[in-house]
Amino acid sequence: MAKVKIKKQSTFIDMTAMSDVTVLLLTFFMLTSTFVKKAPVQVSTPSSISEIKIPEHDILTILVDNSGKVFMSFDKQDDQRSVLEEVGNEYGMTFTPTETKKFSLQSTFGVNIKQMKSFLGLKEEKMDEVLKAQGGIPTDSVDNQFKVWVKAARSVNPDLRIAIKADQATPYRVIKSVMNSLQDLKENRYNLITSLKVTDAK
Amino acid sequence: MDAPQQSGNKTGKSKQKKFAVRVDFTPMVDMNMLLITFFMLCTTLSKPQTMEINMPSNDDKITDQQKTKVKESLAVTLLLDAKNQLYYYEGIPDWNNPEAIKRADYTNQETGIRRVLMRKNAAVVNKVKELKQQKRNLQITQKQYDAQVKELRNGKNTPTVIIKATDEATYKNLVDALDEMQICNIGKYVIVPIADTDKDLIKAVNGKL
Fold first, then answer.
1. Which fold has domain B72-121+158-208?
2. For residue B164, is pLDDT > 80?
């Protein structure tokens, strides 16, 4: 009987090349990425054909959701901290170092200044909930805290650029009050954040 | 003293054992994949687009002389209303005549506002088209192109568009309207609050239909 000997093949696969590829990809993602900011509201921006990219630094983002709540965020934590102090001065409030620290770590903020102290006393998970439920900076003409925030932001960082990121279903009424407040502060140049439209027009 | 020992080693029987240099990279690949997945999920790759707009100042102190006057024949007013409705009129309409304002929409059809503005701004649109062709043929650089387009857009006798939105219009409508300005190469446009007369006109038009 002829014996057919099956040759034993090694199952060892050389992973070096694979590892090379993954490391390359990893490096790419690490270098190009900017992290998604945790936002209290989901905003879908309208699309436009404009192809100007937003600058990377010194941005004050004004987030407007479709029910008209206004939030703000800075790209620098230091700015955010100084702005809180500035606004606190305006309303005669002082914040402890722990409170300012906690505030500067917030990616997006927006509560009535009168509730700010109790808000900063909350636990982190609770903060997100409160922000979602009763957040929003008042923009009405009676108590326009939004103006105070923008003014403080401008005094802290004169190079700041203002960008409005609003949901596409936001009523114009809300946008108008935001724009009017900005105009009152002589902030006549600002950016509207949009997403890219797949163009059919040529 | 060392030399003989070394040579002795070489010729000697004690051969150094060869180790396999193969390292198993599988766990490393696993870990990398995990990290890649993490980065892919947590990042925004593309930066969002943005539109730059300049708003007129709210300052009351501006005298009439400082205000930019617009020729009546060159002015187009867009009225953005609820439910994606869009109306427009040219120049100063007869406030009592609802026929004065016309309906349009945001599409690229014959009814679209784009056609209206394109017609109104035909001279500039055609020149920009020519420039684009020149740029494509590498006759002019991007820089020259940008400069010339800017000059054309802000030139004399180009239409001025006044955008007025009612409270019920959405932000999307506003952005769409601003987009049309870009598409139609209109350099002079402004967003102003809506006047009561405009609202009445819209009402009149809606009531008629």
1. Nucleotidyltransferase; domain 5 (3.30.420)
2. yes
Encoded tokens for A181: 């407040």
**pLDDT, tens digit (0-9, with 9 covering 90-100), for B56-92:** 666 655 555 555 666 667 778 888 887 777 888 877 7
CB atoms closer than 10 angstroms to residue B41: 8
Give CA–CA dist B55/A187, Å, rounded. Answer: 8
Name the residue of chain A whose CA is nearest to B35's CA.
Answer: A26
Residue appearing with tokens 């590829």: A21
Which A residues 91-150 touch B at CB under 8 Å? Answer: none
Among candidates B43, B56, B179 on the partner chain, residue whose Cβ is nearest the Cβ of A35: B43
Residue at A182 is within a domain = yes
Number of folded domains that form chain A: 1
**Chain B: residue nearest A184 by CA?**
B58
ipTM over 0.85: no
Beta bridge partners of B163: B78, B191
Distances (CA, A) of A122 to A119, A125, A126, A130: 5, 8, 6, 9
